[in-house]
Amino acid sequence: MLVRRQFPLSAMVMLLFVTMFGGVTRASAADATFTARVGNYTAGFIEPERIRHHRYELQLRQTAELTPRFKTAIEARLRFDAALYPDERAPQRDLSDAVRDDEMSEADIRQAYVDWLGDLASLRIGLQQIDWVESLSTRSSDVLTPVDLRFGGFGGSGDNIVPMAAASINHRFVAGSLEWLLVPAPKPHRLARGANGYGYYESLSRIGDPRLEREIKSGSIPESGKSMEGGVRWLGNAGDFDMTLLAYRGHQRSPTLVLSRPDPVDPRRITIEETFPRCNTFGAFSSWSGDSAVLRFIGLFEPEREARVFSRLSPEPRRIMESRLRGGFGWDYVYSKDLKIYSEHYLTRTRAYYADEDSRNAPAIDDPIDDTWSTSLRLTNETFDDVFATLDGVLTGPERSWTISPQLTITMLSDYKLSFGANFIRSISETSAFEPLRDASHVWLALDAWFDGKRFGAEESNTAAVR
After folding, report:
1. pLDDT at position 250 over 50
2. Under a CB-based contact definition with an 8 Å cutoff, are residues 125 and 113 in contact?
3. What ranges make up the beta strands (E) of 24-120?
4. Is residue 61 within 8 Å of residue 74, measured between CB atoms?
5. Would the pLDDT of 255 be above 60?
6. Using 50, 70 and 90 to split pLDDT, how confident is the model at 431?
7. Burial (CB count <10 Å: 0-12, 13-18, 19+), residue 334
8. Looking at the DSSP assignment, which residues form a beta bridge with residue 403?
9. Which has the closest alpha carbon to 254: 153, 389, 370?
10. Which helix H or strand E contains 11, and what residues bound it?
């Protein structure tokens, strides 16, 4: 239980860092704001019925304006999931030690960066949550944004995006601005380290012959100068029309699974290793904004990415590559505060081919072209001042699998929020994107309290919170 032993030390180091950082910036800042959130999140799986999470969380955030040109921000989070406590009475007592070590307790810095604002350029350096894709989903691209997928990817982007150390500079350029990004220590999607009920790790056991014994090796992007990532994007504006063009040299955030046999003498055992190969992505986004509507167009191209599985078990292993083109549009419309509609519609074409020249004379890949589509819809309602209702749905094809996520949030005494909702999942096919989550439908309840510190050096108080 290494992580559980290290958690108190990690928490102390994190809180010390936040305190020192906050003390320095608060002492020197003309304008500083401190925000804290304390919350509890409880979730239960529908089938089989059991409590999956009973998680307590403390989130701290401070922003400071040291000078009109120099600003800082830091955000930290502590989590403890009591449902994973190693006790016979705990509802998740059957989970492995690997899952408990990874999920029961966490202490991490979510953001910690400094901003410098100049007349012609701006600079940001530090730990950042990077999301360049202008989409309802952070997973529209599998190269740009690493996401925490241990719990199915449900929840807000601020909770799920994995922070990375990065430096970016933005300057004026041709009817807009140009932003350069450098990521010296990139990270992949954060995946489950054992069978935790959300399907990813369980799906690995269905790869290959079910009679084989499997050893699963969790992987990551190597920490070296050769793994450095970088990109550039142009953001243009002309009246009601906005456009973004981007190019990024990174890694696949989802793993390519390499199957091998650790012992050639023992054919009953195989190893499944997570690898994260290099990959490029190119994107184009545009939007037109009217009085009450926004029309958006989205295009992404990811050439030469490795297929999900590469098997070394065959006598002549062949590595299969894929080129993925995704295009679509979104339409947002505000009828009133009673009804707001946000929607996106994608068509994705994937072409598979052999990677090495020696395989060109090999038999053709079965079904080299794979077309899929997805439709996302979000409805929101604010008829009552202290009640916020949302309904999210995603439908994928051609197999027509779907998720539906209703949520209702009630604000009490301005600083307390009671939220409850559900995530219902239906997978029709084994090739569906929702297949790993087929048994993870659940209902949840959350209670959060915000505590906002007063602005230092300003007369009015700050009521903005990390929500």
Report:
1. yes
2. yes
3. 31-45, 50-67, 70-81, 105-117
4. yes
5. yes
6. confident
7. middle
8. 394, 425
9. 153
10. helix 2-28
